[in-house]
Amino acid sequence: xxxxxxxxxxxxxxxxxRRLRAEKSDTELTDSQMSVLAVLDRSxxxxxxxxxxxxxxxxxxxxxxxASLDARGLVDREPDPADGRQIIVRITPSGAAxxxxxxRQRDAWLARRLADLDPEERAVLARASQILRRIADS
Amino acid sequence: xxxxxxxxxxxxxxxxxRRLRAEKSDTELTDSQMSVLAVLDRSxxxxxxxxxxxxxxxxxxxxxxxASLDARGLVDREPDPADGRQIIVRITPSGAAxxxxxxRQRDAWLARRLADLDPEERAVLARASQILRRIADS
DNA sequence: GGGGAATAGTTAGCACGGCTAAGCAGTTCG
DNA sequence: CGAACTGCTTAGCCGTGCTAACTATTCCCC
Lengths: 138, 138
Description:
- Chains A, B: Pfam families: MarR_2.
- Chain A is mainly alpha-helical.
- The first copy, chain A, is 67% helix and 7% strand.
- A two-stranded antiparallel sheet of chain A has the order 1-2.
- In chain A, α2 (31-43) crosses α4 (59-71).
- Chain A binds a DNA duplex through α4.
């Protein structure tokens, strides 16, 4: 078995991610917008601070992303009745629909590439996906 | 065996790449600047057009990135003696040093994570690296 | 050889999303 | 009560993606 070189893996990761990132269309949400919506869709209502921490972003950056999502009606922002400093961000039905639509569009490029692989290679990527997730969260 | 979902793989890739990107050296090179320098370091002098195509970016974006690298003395831009329309971009010794420094730092972060894996997991990532490279180049 | 088409690079201007600094409102606690 | 802390926002800088439009040069075909 080949030796795993950090540089090789890193370059592969960045290259394929750059390709993925390039696969956008006009109607599509940006990376950060999509990512925030996906978190809200999966985890339920959160505060801006919690979202910023999760995305490893500073609070002002999250404010801007949320303002943009709010303006498009994809999220709601309501004051927290229990703590006047906090805001509760909630995904709207329209936002949830956008998550689904955008995800589908985004996955299309990758799905086409995966379709060209043989089952064993797909299995490798499935396992790698889990391992990389663990690394990213560490 | 788990099913490979495009979304899972895509999110894993983007998450870990985001973490990697955060590991920049003190020289404060951005991802795109670093990427261009790395290409020049590996492939030798290139034209802006060639760099733009390689990075899958429009020429004006590359112009700006190159201007910034030029201003920092990390690349040189000289007219092509053979074709008056073209420019030849060349990495400087200082630019090559920046590549090495950043690469070392990013590899270090990843190397620490890989060290926590067992050999079988590392083998999976080694194979995935090759598969992803092929996908990125497709 | 001359003239239009194509190519290379740039400039201008917009959008977006990182960041820090600073400010305001609300909460906590000595 | 008042000072310190927390949560969010605003203001403003920067990098980098884009398109449109411009200049300069080269190519190619009549």
